[in-house]
Amino acid sequence: MEIESSNNIPMECGFHEVEEPYSDHTKVVRPKSLEELIQELHKIFDSDKVNVDYVKRLMTLYISNRKDWKKYAKFDPHRYTRNLVDAGNGKFNLMVLCWGEANGSSIHSHANAHCFMKVLDGSIREELYDWPSEDSTGTSMSPRQKNTYEKNRCAYISDEIGLHRVENPSHSDKAVTLHLYSPPFDECESFDQRTGHKNTVKVTFWSKFGKRTPYGVCATTKEERKNAENN
Ligand SMILES: [Fe+2]
According to its UniProt record, which reaction does this protein catalyse (predicted)? Predict the structure, then answer.
């Protein structure tokens, strides 16, 4: 039998350029569930280099399924809640934020972390702000851009891009978002829109891994991560 050989294959190729894994966002495969998305995120964040477009695409491709995330969706009647889903081996925190009707955040920074925000339910409005300059201290901050994200869309922000405020624009429907922060942080800066003055604030979890956080406990301990991974 004759075997056809292709002239297109270079026979004496001295070197192949090896593509780094998780670097080409056109090759992202759709995760079929939140669990698959989390497994993939663990692999990606195992490396110290992270491709923002790749993660954004991966989170966009996951089709929100309430069954996957309802155990983390815990609402407070007065303000939005943060509910830890996965502590990413210390490399990232993945959490579900629950926004009651018209709930919103303050203007805030992100502690030098990458911040991805995917809409799981409802829609979300984001206002982007520049960092206040020293000259502008005492004057009010106005947004440079407003974006609305519908279900399944994914936004990205970092301190390099600026500051933002996030809100559920609906007065009749709740909203749920999935946030990934890398590296994890438990403090950020909150800004007073009227003056541009900032305060350092602790960020806390309403629940962790589906269980209500005891009063006064906000940091994610190594032991808690280990327990979660063993469950
Ligand atoms: Fe944010």
Answer: L-cysteine + O2 = 3-sulfino-L-alanine + H(+)
Domains and CATH numbers, the chain: 2-61 (no CATH), 72-229 (2.60.120.10)
pLDDT of 78-102, one tens digit each?
Answer: 999 999 999 999 999 999 999 999 9
Binding residues for Fe cation: 108, 110, 164
Task: Return binding residues.
Answer: 108, 110, 164
Q: What average pLDDT is seen over the chain?
A: 89
How far, in Å, are 148, 150, 160 from residue 81 at the CA level?
A: 20, 19, 26
Indicate the pTM of the whole model: 0.86
